[in-house]
Amino acid sequence: MVEAIVFYTLAVLILGLGVAVITTPKTVHSVVFLVLNFLCVAVLYIVLRAEFLAVIQVLVYAGGIVVLYLFVVMLVNLKQAPEAHEDPRRLARLGLVLSGAVLLELAGIVVYSFGRVTPASAPAAPGPLTGMGNTEELGWLLYTDYLIPFEVASVLLLVAMVGAIVLARRQS
Amino acid sequence: MEITPAHYTVLSAALFSIGVIGVLVRRNVIIIFMAIELMLNAVNINLVAHARYLENLAGQVFVVFVIAVAAAEAAVGLGILLAFFRNKETVNIDEMNIMRW
Predict the structure, then answer these.
(1) Which residues contact A85 (CB under 8 A, 6 or more apart)?
(2) Contact B57/A129 with Cβ under 8 angstroms?
(3) Fewest CB within a 10 Å sphere: which of A8, A31, A73, B30?
(4) How far apart are CA B73 and CA B70, in angstroms?
């Protein structure tokens, strides 16, 4: 019962803030709604027993990525809103139809798979993962089974960092 | 009232569709980037929920990778946006057609 109340509250908040992100005319307001959306998702992660991911969500998304967005919004100082000089709803109908099709497709998948995803009935055989916290288990998995993807991800981040600096540097 | 994985999947699908609407309807590139972040978050919710209900942590590992890729995407995308803005003084996606043939 408590889980249901928490879930529905968070779901309404997440969806409402998501709609606010894409409908607000001012870009700065969009960024603020995006932070709140990320924080609600972090709370949802805690409900789902993914405490480490909740912390990462707050640190990386709400703390890092959103600050990046805010900096860009401040650097890109527009005299007029980009959608002010034309009909902003020109493609709205087509966009709504296409995204409605995506929603229908996803709903079809949900209906099709309803009840087929059953929780694991018995706990997995006691392995090296039992009796650890979420962070410890995740770290164990990252440094054993997923070591190579983990290293590739770190190289990707390095490339992205260098690329972003090269792109944003002012050519003299 | 029990919350099943289907509930989380529906929430995830709805949030993903909101992101799709944002990408298709808005003309401001910064807001389109934010809509992409919304879609990535929808995928993450799905992965975490199923990791919980299938009692398999692999989903959470993938969320870590998705977050890493999202950070990389945001950094490079906003870098491109800044470089573009210096040249054309706009963030309207309709005017970003210099590479269109």
Answers:
(1) none
(2) yes
(3) A8
(4) 5
Q: Where are the beta strands (DSSP E) in B6-93?
A: none
Say what the pTM is.
0.84
Which chain A residues are within 8 Å of B78, Cβ to Cβ? Answer: 68-69, 72, 164, 168
With an 8 Å Cβ cutoff, is B84 touching chain A? no
State the count of interchain CB pairs (< 8 A) between A and B: 230
Distance in Å from the first CA to the final CA of chain B = 56
Ranges of chain A with pLDDT below 50 = 122-123, 125-129
A17 CB-contact burial (10 Å; exposed 0-12 / middle 13-18 / buried 19+): buried
Amino acid (1-letter code) at residue A81: A
pLDDT score of A84? 55
Q: What is the pLDDT of residues B37-96, one digit of tens each?
A: 999 999 999 999 988 888 888 899 999 999 999 999 999 999 888 888 888 887 888 777
Domains belonging to chain B, first-starting first, are 5-92 (1.10.287.3510)
Buried residues in B80-94 as b, exposed as e (16+ CB within 10 A): bbbebbeeeebbbee
Which residues share a beta bridge with B92?
B28
